[in-house]
Design a protein that fits this description.
The protein is mainly α. The chain folds into 2 domains: 55 residues; 38 residues. The protein is built from 4 helices and 2 strands, in the order αααββα. It has a two-stranded antiparallel sheet with strand order 1-2. Helix 1 packs across helix 2. The chain is rod-shaped, with a radius of gyration of 24 Å.
Length: 94
């Protein structure tokens, strides 16, 4: 049996499909091994591009993590201010 050569666009499309359709389904559909799909995902995440096809999933993930941390700090600050205001109101009513 001859080995299949996957183009960069095909690899990108298959990896993208694996996120929406599920890995098991994609492995059976394209008859590829889990290790191969995993390698493709790692290459895409590590390099940000994959053979000329842009995939900035890693950059987007970092941006979302930073935004999440920023929003957590805002919520924590608001919760602290609310607790302080509640304490001040409680103490001033005596």
């Amino acid at each position: 049996m001859q080995r299949r050569k996957w183009s960069y666009e095909e690899k990108y499309r298959i990896v993208k499909e694996s996120f929406s359709d599920g890995v098991d389904y994609i492995l059976r559909k394209y008859n590829i091994s889990p290790a191969m799909l995993s390698d493709w995902k790692v290459n895409m995440a590590r390099h940000g591009s994959f053979g000329g096809v842009e995939w900035n999933g890693a950059a987007v993930l970092v941006q979302l993590k930073n935004e999440n941390e920023y929003l957590r700090r805002i919520v924590a600050r608001q919760a602290l201010e609310l607790a302080l205001r509640t304490e001040v109101i409680k103490n001033s009513s005596y």
